Each structure stands twice: as structure tokens, then as C-alpha cells.
Amino acid sequence: MAEFVTIYEVGPRDGLQNEKEIVPTADKIALIDLLSEAGFAKIEVTSFVSPKWVPQMADAAEVMAGIRRRPGVTYGVLTPNMKGFEAALAAGADEVAIFASASETFSQKNINCSIEESFARFAPVLEAALAAGVPVRGYVSCVVACPYEGAIAPAAVRAVAERLMDAGCHEVSLGDTIGAGAPETIAAMLEAVFQAVPAERLAGHYHDTGNRALANVEASLELGLRTFDSAVGGLGGCPYAPGAKGNVATGALVDLLQARGFETGIDRAKLAVAEAFMMGRIARLSAG
Ligand code: HMG
Ligand code: MG
């Protein structure tokens, strides 16, 4: 039987947080429902973050309340602090994610605190989530390079990934936030992280700025990673990472995995429907 690779569809969150025009709540809900129908087991729906920092995600509770939940699908959300976690719990999130950075400057710009302070904020979130039986995913941003500091040492990534695991995360997603990675730098980073966290607990989250995200996925597959984050239509970026382009496109990722003989559980035709829907809506919004 073919080996399975899990795709974590992050388009509704990472994809839409960076769109210039705010996507209407009803369109977000329709997109998530189409993605549920397409067979994703994991969908990152929204972020419970400050609406002053990311106005695109201000409708997090409404989106959560409006989606049609398909049994077996994990609907995840970002929660940077207790305020976000409490709202996420009330909204019925199946999984929450805390997001740290391997770069001090990016941590300050993105969540307004140092790496050390971020772990102090995450501690009560982890405690409350685990007590409530809600699994916690951890992100490390800037795993290859930072938009403000340049190259980031693999040892710095390992240290943050190890802290997230030790704190109780079940999985750590490694974010090449600005898509600066190439197969060699991604492999060097992964080899360093493996000293602390095994491949089966890691996910690759590769933005495609340099058009190398698929090559980076291939390098990661070779080293044993079996979970990848991607966004429908290649949407995405981070408002606090200037120049960051979209995530690797889900359709291209599914095609690559199928060509390599992996099973993904995704209905490619239904994924194409979700993609056409969202790209059509965004084109209409941008046209004004
Ligand atoms: P702060 O200003 O230091 O926070 O921001 P604060 O505690 O001083 O609160 C300021 C205001 O925000 C207050 O409201 C709070 O109530 C409110 P006011 O009294 O002024 O009216 N507030 C909140 N509101 C709703 N939900 C919350 C929340 N927390 C505070 N959870 C904070 C600190 C972390 C809140 C802020 O910096 C923030 O929201 N940052 C999020 C930035 C973000 O979402 N970035 C994108 C996601 S990360 C990413 O894209 C990377 C990733 O994809 C991986 C990769 O590619 O590398 C994951
Ligand atoms: Mg991202």
C-alpha cells in the first residue's frame, strides 16, 4: 500500500491573512466547506489574534460558527496568548497552534515580544489546552532566514523546536516564512532539528517566494518528513514578513506527492473546485 502524506491545508488562515482586501466571512466559510469536501483531514481555519494586528482574521469566531464540520476533520486555529485560546476554545477549535520564531527580530515584529517572553505567554495556553484535551501544534518561523536579520542558524531552529516539543506540542511545523530556503539549506536545517525532534513529529511549512518550495518538499520527503502545510491556490504570506509570498500551492503539492507514489486522501477534482472558487473571489475583490 502507498505511504501516506498528510497535507495541512492552511489557506483559509495563512492564505487569507495576507490578502489586501478583506475576504467576506461568507466566502471564507464557503471555502472551508469546499476544502472539507475535498478530503483534507486537517484545515487551519483562522487566527484568534488581535484584530488591530491582523484585521483580516477579525471574524474568527463567526467563521468557526459558520462552517459545516465534516466528521474526522481537524479544524485548527492560531492562538498567540490566553485571550486567543479562550476564544478558540469557546468557538470549538479542535486544535490550537502557538507560533514562535527562531529570529528575535521577527518575534518582536510579529507578536510584539522576545522569544523568551513568547514561551512565557505560551505556557498557560499549553497548560489550559492540554487540560481541556485540545492538542497544540507549535510553529517555528524563519527556519532558514528572517526578513530582518538574514540567515538563521540551524541550531537556533533546533532550540526553539525542542522547547515547543518539551512544552507539550504534539507536532512542530517548520516555517520558511519568506521562502528563502533551497534543498541544501532546508536539509541542513532538518538534520539539526532531528537531533532534538524526530521527523514524524515535524511538518514542513514552505513559502514559495523563491519558487523552490516543491524542491524543498522533495528534499524533506527524502529525509523522512510526512506532513506538509500548503495553501489552496498558493495563497499566503505574513503581514509582518515583508516580501513573503504564498505558501506552496496545495494542487501542486498533491500532484507532486501523487507522482512520487504517495497517498494523500485528497480528491483532486474537488480541490480544483475550491481553488477556482477562491481565486475567482479574490480576483473580484481586487478588481474592486
Ligand atoms: P500586543 O499589542 O503586545 O498585545 O500584541 P496586548 O496584550 O498588549 O493587547 C493589545 C490589544 O489587542 C488589546 O486590545 C487586547 O485586548 C487585544 P485593546 O485593549 O487595545 O482594545 N488582544 C487580542 N484581541 C483578540 N485576540 C487576541 C488578543 N490578544 C490581545 N488573541 C499579540 C500581541 C500577540 C496579541 C499581537 O502581536 C498579535 O495578535 N499578533 C499576531 C500576528 C499574526 O497573526 N501574524 C501572522 C501569523 S504567524 C505566521 O503567519 C507565520 C506562520 O505561517 C509560519 C511561517 O510561515 O513562518 C505561522
Ligand atoms: Mg506561513
Automatic annotation (TrEMBL):
Cited InterPro entries: Aldolase_TIM (IPR013785), HMGL (IPR043594), PYR_CT (IPR000891)
EC class: lyase
Gene3D superfamilies on file: Aldolase class I (3.20.20.70)
Superkingdom field: Bacteria
Any single Pfam family the record assigns to this protein: HMGL-like
Domain Pyruvate carboxyltransferase: 5-272
Enzyme Commission number: 4.1.3.4
GO molecular function: hydroxymethylglutaryl-CoA lyase activity
The keyword Lyase is annotated on this UniProt entry: yes
Keyword annotations from UniProtKB, A to Z: Lyase, Metal-binding
Transmembrane segments: none
This protein's record includes keyword Transport: no
Family affiliation: Belongs to the HMG-CoA lyase family.
Matches recorded under NCBIfam families: PRK05692.1
Protein name: Hydroxymethylglutaryl-CoA lyase
Species assigned in the record: Rhizobium aquaticum
